[in-house]
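Q: I have 181 residues here and want to know how they pack in 3D. Can you give me a structure?
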Amino acid sequence: MHPIEVLFPISRRATFHGSSGKLDIAVTQCTFVAWHGPTLAGFPKSLRIKHLVKSGSTPAFAEIAVLEILRASGWQAVWLDAHHRRVWSSMSQYTHFRSGMEFQGMSHAATQQFWRIFSANQVKLAGAWDIFAAKETRIAFLELKEVGPDRLRLSQMKWFETALREGTNVDSFRLIEWSRR
């Protein structure tokens, strides 16, 4: 069992059709408490329209809430915001993505595996899964999709297939279908 399964147990498996045939991905269903407080200022409109959830007593994007769950269990993790080319470590802390950067607190081996996938993906961040996490020698990629019309994109399937070709274990991937209550 991959250690990510302890935090995000498999609810079901989903089969997708990629360029290399059928791909089986573990899916976790997750419910967050919706944030009903004030909206966030100072973010681009494309981020302000995202639904917020409660993380402790503060508002957070679902991706940040997942980072906090991972960190509480000893994982190092970042949100790879490909759309804005940012690497988030909290709601208030991000750096601009740049090729070859180190991911804070992650082992050299984990970082190198990410860059092998990135390079094999034609040096594109597009399609990178939302969360890149590492704990000791283990890595994990998690993609968050809000329940509804949100689906894996072709570029994300390509990233997944590229990672598998670069030696990443299929159990290192988790699709998180999330909702708010």
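Q: Anything worth noting?
A: The mean pLDDT is 92. The longest helix spans residues 108-120.
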